[in-house]
Amino acid sequence: MGELEDAVMTRVWKWNRPVTVREVLEDLQRERSIAYTTVMTVLDNLHQKGWVRREAEGRAYRYEAVSTRAAYAAALMNDAWSQSDNPAAALVAFFGMMSEEQRQALRDAVRIVQGPTDSAPADTRADTSPDTAPQTSPDTGDENPGSVREPGGR
């Protein structure tokens, strides 16, 4: 996704509702000079790529995201990881780049995906100390759960 597409999608994800070209334009114009037709073209491109769906409203369209920003980020990570000739080494290198806060978020995410562990008594399970207990998940705003597949099957 290009820089302008990302700027447009950021607003669509943030607002989490169908938006018009005019609404996106007015918000973008707070930061840069941009034409209505440019925003219209970007939203049309995003629609053709499968990132937004649109519904006619009079002579215009209202656009809304097909999936969440989190699903987009997951698709990017999955795509990059799947292209590695050594996925384990790629993960080790990636984990090495993470901050402690990011590593804690990763541990929390793994716990969520794995679900509760009922095979061991609570007092003998790993990572049950207060400093490693799952943290409150970051505020996801108005995002809804979505597929981690990138639109367009990528």
Helix-strand category: mainly alpha
Percent of residues in helices comes to 40-55%
Q: Quote the average pLDDT.
A: 81
Can you tell me the residue ranges where pLDDT is under 50 for at least 5 consecutive residues? Answer: 124-154
Strand order of the largest sheet: 1-2
Shape: elongated
β-strand number? 2
What percentage of the residues does DSSP assign to strands (E)?
Answer: 5-15%
Given the structure, what is the number of helices?
A: 6
Largest beta sheet, briefly?
A: 2 strands, antiparallel
Helix-strand sequence: HHHEEHHH
Q: Please give the alpha-carbon distance between the first and last residues.
A: 12 Å
Rg calc? 20 Å
How would you concisely characterize the structure shown here?
The protein has 154 residues and is mostly helical.
What does this structure look like?
There is one protein chain. This protein has 154 residues and is mostly helical. Helices cover 49% and strands 8% of the residues. The protein has 6 helices and 2 strands, in the order αααββααα. Strands 1-2 form a two-stranded antiparallel sheet. β1 and β2 form a beta hairpin.
